[in-house]
Amino acid sequence: KGKGYAPAEKDPDKFHSLAPAGSARTTSFSEQFGRILCELAKKDGRVVGITAAMCEGTGLDGFRQTYPERFFDVGIAEPHAVTFAAGLAAGGKRPFAAIYSTFLQRAYDNVLHDVALQNLPVCLCIDRAGLNPSDGPTHHGIFDVAFLSQIPELKIYTPATYSALENALCDALECGAPCAVRYPRGSESMLVKEHFYKAKTEGVGIRADFNHDEKLQAVVVTHGRIAAEAIKAQAELADEGIRVGIILLEFLKPYSECARLVAEAIGNNTCPVVTYEEEIKNGGAGMLLSDKLCEDHGFDRAKISVMAVDDCFGFGKKGESIYETLGISSADLKNEITRIVR
């Protein structure tokens, strides 16, 4: 990359992936992850950071400089990074292994056998979760929820803001069990932050923008960055007289606990429910959560709609956003809710 361009040849790490010229510089989830991990390491000497040749990309450069003896770059070897983390955890450390979602699938066996089966306190910090249109299908993080959800005893967190990310990482450190904290590329959405996080909160759970006894015509259950699209659809539907509530999940697994909190939030409402995500549909969070809602809490399966990336790798189309191309934009969500409530 950058061959023939002197600045890129001189500093290949910096020029590996760049925003368009003139873009406003804002902090990112990766940078916030690095900052939070430094804070955790300051308080807890067991904390170590691991990367597979992506120190700067995962935001660990500051950690490397501050805690060089507790930082490990294993090279382009994600399976080894996970097994190495398991070994450190077995020795009493609290490893945080930062790996892009699209590369974590290389280490599936290691997560399953070396971490989860041994019930070791490894935290998988899954960067670039969800769709990544600037990098395309090779870097879409749409499969990790489905393949990690199969693994027993593994907790999955899905923070949508920096404060939720901090809560998730703190919880992961304290729980003493295998965990995965997944977060998107880029910055937090101010729309999501202002809608659900008017004040800083502690702990990890769910956030609903309605009261459980409020009369609704539909409820959207979502997680991560795509919650911003749900908020847009909600506003447009309100203009048409359709009252929709939104539940933002801060964790997914254990699904039994997630379903219980969702059911409590929805209360006596018997309205349709739409699960809404930017990950793969088959075996994903929407399917698994809807199963638990029906099996454990008596929800009507016919009234649950699952919107997600449907059986494709997520190639983009010129002139459309990736959400539009894959049929999960705010307009698509609005159309689906309109269809099921009328």
What does this protein structure show overall?
The structure is a single chain. Strand 8, helix 10 and strand 9 form a beta-alpha-beta unit. The model has no long low-confidence stretch (mean pLDDT 94). The longest helix is centred in the first third of the chain and has 15 residues, at 29-43. The strands form 2 sheets. The chain has a 7-stranded mixed sheet, sandwiched between helices. A 5-stranded mixed sheet has the order 7-9-8-11-12, with helices on both faces. It is built from 14 helices and 12 strands. It is an alpha/beta fold and 342 residues long. 39% of the residues lie in helices and 17% in strands. It is globular, with a radius of gyration of 20 Å.
List keywords for this structure.
single chain, alpha/beta, 14 helices
